[in-house]
Amino acid sequence: MRIRPRSTAVACIGAVVALLGSACGSGEASSLSPAGDPVRGGTLVYSYNTEAQSVDPATCAIGIGVGPCQAVYGALLDYDLETGEIEPGMAESFTTEDGKAWTLKLRPGLTFSDGTPFDAAAVAFNWGRILDPALLSPSASVAKTIDWEVVDPTTLSVTSKEVNYQLDFGLTEALAYIASPTAIEALGADFGNNPVGAGPFTLTSWARGTEMILDRNPTYWDQPRPYVDRLVLKTIPADDQRFNALQAGEVDVMAVTVQKYAARAEGAGMKVTSAPLLGGTGFRLSHRGPLADPDVRTAIAKLIDNEQIMNAVYPGEPVASGFTPEDSPLYDPGSAWPERDVQGAQKLLDDYRSRTGSGDIELTYVLTAGSPVLSQTAELIQSQLQQVDGLRVRIVPLEGAAFAAAMTSGDYDLIVSGLGGTHPDNLYKVFRTGGSSNNSGYSNPTVDEALDLTHTSNDPAVVESAYKTAINELVATNAYRFWRHARTDLISPANVHGVEVAYQYWFRPELVWIQQ
Amino acid sequence: MMYRAVARHAAKLVSVLALVSVTTFLLLETIPGDRLASVLPEGATPEMRAAAEERFGLNGSLPERFFSWLGSALQGDLGRSMQSQVPVTDSILERLPVTLELATLSILLALLIAIPVGVYSGYRPGGLVDRIATFLCSITLSIPSFLLGVLLVFVFAVTLSALPVTGWTPLSEGLVPHIRSLVLPVVTLAAVETVGFIRLLRNDMVATLQQDFVLSARARGLSTPRILLVHALRPSAFSLLTVMGVSLGRLIGGTVIVETLFSLPGLGTLVITAITGRDFLLVQGIVLVVAVAYVLLNALVDLTYPLLDPRVRTS
Amino acid sequence: MSHSLDKPASVVSEERLPILDPQDGSAPVDELTPPSAEVEPAGRRRRRRDVGAFFGGCWLVTIVLAALFVDLLPLPAPDVVGNLYSLPPFQNAEHILGTDQLGRDQLSRALHGARISLAVAIGATLVAMVIGTAAGLIAGYFRRAFDVVFDLSTNTILAFPPLILLIALVALREPSAVTLAIGLGVVGAPTFARIARANTIAYADREFVIAAKSMGSSSTRILRREILPNVLLPVVSFATVVAATLVVAEGSLSFLGLGVPPPAPSWGGMIAAGRESLYENPALVLVPGVFFFLTVFSLNRVGDWARGRVGRESSL
Amino acid sequence: MTVNGKDIDAVTQVLQQDTETPTLAVTDLRVWFDTPRGMVRAVDGVTLDVAPGRTLGIVGESGSGKSVLSRAVMNILAPSAVVRSGSRIEFEGRDTATLGREEARKLWGARMAMVFQDPMTSLTPVLTIGAQLTETLRRHLPMSRSEALDRAEELLEWVGIPEPRKRLKQYPHNLSGGMRQRVVIALALACSPRLLIADEPTTALDVTVQHQILALLERLQREQGMAMVLITHDLGVVAGRSDEIAVMYAGRVVEQAPTKVLFREMRHPYTRALVGSIPRISDPSHTRLRAIPGRPPTVVDPPPGCAFAARCPHARPRCLAETPVLTTDGTTGDRHRHACFFPVGTPAGDDAWTTNLDEGRTAAGLPVDSRSVL
């Protein structure tokens, strides 16, 4: 699974819910008419409920860590959520003919903020560093699949060990961030706290737990951007408190994953830029013990009542009737969840028990401790699954690291998790047999074949239909179940323009300008 | 005599700190499950695991690891946080001022309320003020800090929306917003301390006011406020000082609930993330710092006590 | 001699109940002497204090009985999810105290919560009492080396930031009522230990003990037959106050989400859950809050009364 | 020529001053305390006066109300005390009850001062001697800090404390009992009061120091020409040092007279019993000490009649019914008054005694035989 377990847990906790009676529909971005062309100057304040642990390029390519890295280093390539296209970023181009041999062209004369050249050797140095096991880099799993060689200061030839037309996605996140080699060698372990990159901003100060202040990088290649002089990242854990700060004008871009604030913001005349993410808030099923049997898995799928969960825990938010939302390009009627059918489930379970002669089935439902929303959902699911006799569910709340341990080691029957990430290639990592994040032991030939096709085929139509077949198969085999589509809302006052959702909870700070 | 007392306290301090460190170390050692879970990324390779164990000093025998940690700790290097690579000492020093400010302000607020109320109820025991104070004290003592915090938030922040619900506004953003963000947490923390101080001061005053020297002071025609504040309060102030010192020491480790409730970036929230994130070195560092604070303050109180109270001073 | 004794008599060094975070839910306590003399005419005052203790006692009895026999009461099960979500109290005959976000009956959850909170607190108090009294007896009687070890160990437990010790104990183990009770017990032990030790020292040089010694009875016999009965009284009188403190501790832990695992309801957990929708339905916090407050208040009042009663009889 | 410590001209001086207004005049003073057991009549109608330069000794067992009397005069009674209407305390002719705030401030502590029993606890333990002295001086007299310090040093020297300058910086617990009492006296006399009340000033001290302190008080009184009230339970202390003596019992003055007259012509059986209980060196060894049977009465809602009746060998039925009033019978000068129906040394007294002797017990049931005559 792309997102490091700890940040997913945090993301779920971030989804703190208040049971608001007020009705609120899902509002698409109400784009105000652009008020003239962009103006330079001003301070832009972004706020979310947690903060990055380090700004070291090798370790920041995960979940919440992405923000500061993108601001300081800029990404080699940028993935536009709306169009689904991958555009050039710090690099000029990244092209391939056969999906195996790729050529990375860099912008000539590009330098880091410490004056040293941003050239192919720098890229090679950073990618090589990611492979060093001591750095425990989450990007290592992608870096291992490729070899590279410096051709000339602005060109790097990359060969993928296997045909993979989605490799360019790797350069938008995992291998996207390039830091100044001289600074890395000079600072060593402390580099993570005082990074040197070529991106739109440079790190000025970092009061952990409260705020990080970044200022414009004068030598950024894409003048006149960034428009704002200063970017501030504020950490305000409680959603309602963050919303109060937004209304009080202390925050310009507020990231939130709970729908109700978007509605309240629109009511208050603010702009909401939102983007659907892959998957949703739900749980993943492992394949051990009784769960190896498809009948048991279908029975479980038939017992979950999305309606009831949403009404109780996320009132007013749209219910996820299937894997992909209707408005998503990958939507397919086949990806709808199975109908709720308690008798059917009871029959399936009885058949299974008579077939295998096993007694009551007991499943563990693992979740992160400390979040009332998650524990309420868990208690609801427990009561839903226990409507049939012969099935008992034990709720196991684990704090942060113990949860991560259970996740990575697959020591669970059902575990709270969201797919996270934006690019469908994440499905490859999580559900392809042997995928680097496939810790639930899921293995399905149809899914493998479809997902491999997405890598080997260069034809977008083929890739799209491959994803659809994979998703339908995932739903059919009940690999994963959720009741609420994952989405990110970036709320900003009317005078802030150019806000675009990027990665999961971040945006493109260099594109934003403030109308004074 | 004074040096022997200092030596005795120093020995006690060192031995308690040693014991605290060993206990924390053993506590963290005996945790079930994978100790690197929160650090290793998805699909971590065996080499990564080996490298991680080496870097965080998790290999080697238990005593080796402890003494290497202790060795560097004595030179002030408590190692690096496993997750953020920030040296433990830096992240503690960054968070300590917040907790210290919370603790000291709570104690000061408690004193501000306790001294007048304590003195007056001691002066007129059984009177109106005394009865009201005793009643309120027994009520406050029975409301746990997390409940009190939630109720205060409900009344002041939600209904009256006079104060921020949670969050910490650093001093750099102006005194008023800073103080506003501190009011509710400090009141929540100070509630119990105030009760303790009032009861202590009241009982002390009742006892002191029955002494003869108070009567002879009145016979000399000195004014009642002067007698209360100079002649009666001063001897009682010493035992108040002792309790204050101990409370401050305990508060430094005790603000976990309030900091979590109001999401303040103090040691309390740091320790919660450290423990849930199994960041052993960070936990070890924090517990040591808090224990040092507690023991130092206790020793300080024991040593300064004779200096302040002439009756005990053996000059 | 514990340092609090060698301070001049006129300075009443009230050794604070050194448990948990500052919220220790109990009056400052001096192990030896009873609450200091009130100048107020004693007659009137004793009657007033009894009233508080009386109501406290009644509440404790009702809550314990209700917690024990909650299944017999005509109440919906605590974890049955209904469809009336976060109903304010006194609006629905079936759910007198309203329902929580998942439509479960607040009253039955509160009573089941009481069962856990009280069970953990009482269990922990017993653990603390056993460990503390034993340690206090030994240290108080044999003194010398035991005293040093005693002093060191109590100070170490106290030096530990209380809640951090608890969190470390509980969070890093499989969270269950038993680990919680033991963890709380360890944190509660120093108080009992110090009371037991102080009383043991005081009794150790009383005539009847010296007489027993001279008749050649073994130390353990003396401890068990001569000293323990006398020490037990002041120790037990503190039980309620320590129990109050531990109920608060259990509440704090479940407030942080590290208490007894869901779906078992606990007051602290209910308050934490209610906190989310404080604005819409404050009753979600107030109902468990009132139960919590009344229980701790009663424990404190009964504790004061017991200490007052014990103070008079066993004044040394 | 001195008569047991009082030189003769002082005595003559006493006789001339009768007409002058008394420094202190207490008339019909009643001070009751509100306690759960009822109203305790600590002082139940006391009338006495002290002329300037004169010393009045007040004697009585503990619980007789003598301390309460002194605190009433000094206006430092406990909050639960109730001064009944009709009580009147005059200081140099002015009724202290009618004093305004400002005048009151000038009176108590300055013109009227008091010394307490236990020097160990009469000084604030946490303030230096100098601080306490200057505090009192600057409270009543317009003095700068340095002037006050110098005056304090003089005072200490005056009361006979060696190295006064050093003492100013010391704390009470650094001094001996006797030294501390001298400091207390210095504190009391700081503003040269007209009246000094000494409530058992030497009880807590050992005999040798006791003598020094009493001699010091006498010297200071003579130099200041101030009136003094010496309160004690020890007849020996007042015998040689006071011009007049008042004997108090159960909140009332039962007999008052010039010292010589009291010892030679005592009228009240209680006074005789008191004097009788002083062991004399002249007595043969092993003489049984004569104690007064019974205990001082509780003064809560006292029954009618004389309070001493239960323990008085002369008790007759009238004593149980009627309360004797303080009167003079003219035989021993108008300054000698007593409150008894069957006074000692009078025919009525002797008849009462012989009748009781015949009946073998007093009207109040106290068994009496020839040996128990006091």
Automatic annotation (TrEMBL), chain B:
Topology of the protein relative to the lipid bilayer: Multi-pass membrane protein
InterPro entries per UniProt: BPD_transp_1_N (IPR045621), MetI-like (IPR000515), MetI-like_sf (IPR035906)
Transmembrane segments: 102-123, 135-162, 182-201, 227-246, 252-273, 280-301
Record localization: Cell membrane
Gene3D superfamilies reported in the protein's UniProt record: MetI-like
Major localization listed first in the record, in broad terms: membrane
CDD domains attached to this UniProt entry: TM_PBP2
Keyword annotations from UniProtKB, A to Z: Cell membrane, Membrane, Transmembrane, Transmembrane helix, Transport
Domain spans labelled ABC transmembrane type-1: 96-305
Pfam family, one: BPD_transp_1
Family affiliation: Belongs to the binding-protein-dependent transport system permease family.
Protein name: Peptide/nickel transport system permease protein
Automatic annotation (TrEMBL), chain C:
Protein name per its UniProtKB record: ABC transporter permease
UniProt membrane topology term: Multi-pass membrane protein
Keywords of this entry: Cell membrane, Membrane, Transmembrane, Transmembrane helix, Transport
Keyword DNA-binding: no
Region (Disordered): 1-44
InterPro entries, sorted: BP-dependent_transpt_permease, MetI-like, MetI-like_sf
Subcellular location: Cell membrane
Spans through the membrane: 51-70, 116-142, 149-171, 177-196, 231-258, 278-299
Gene3D superfamilies linked to this entry: MetI-like
GO cellular component terms, A-Z: plasma membrane
Main location: membrane
Residue ranges occupied by any ABC transmembrane type-1 domain in the UniProt entry: 114-303
Any single GO BP term: transmembrane transport
Similarity remark: Belongs to the binding-protein-dependent transport system permease family.
Ranges in coiled-coil conformation: none
Any one Pfam family match given in the protein's UniProt record, by short name: BPD_transp_1
Automatic annotation (TrEMBL), chain D:
Signal peptide: none
An example Gene Ontology molecular-function term: ATP binding
PROSITE patterns: ABC_TRANSPORTER_1 (PS00211), ABC_TRANSPORTER_2 (PS50893)
Keywords: ATP-binding, Cell membrane, Membrane, Nucleotide-binding, Transport
Main location: membrane
Methyltransferase listed as a keyword: no
Keyword Ligase tagged: no
Location in the cell: Cell membrane
Membrane topology: Peripheral membrane protein
InterPro entries tied to this protein: AAA+_ATPase, ABC_Ni/Peptide_Import, ABC_transporter-like_ATP-bd, ABC_transporter-like_CS, Oligopep_ABC_C, P-loop_NTPase
Residue intervals of the ABC transporter domain: 24-275
Stated family: Belongs to the ABC transporter superfamily.
Name listed for the protein in its UniProt record: Peptide/nickel transport system ATP-binding protein
Natural source organism: Rhodococcus rhodochrous J3
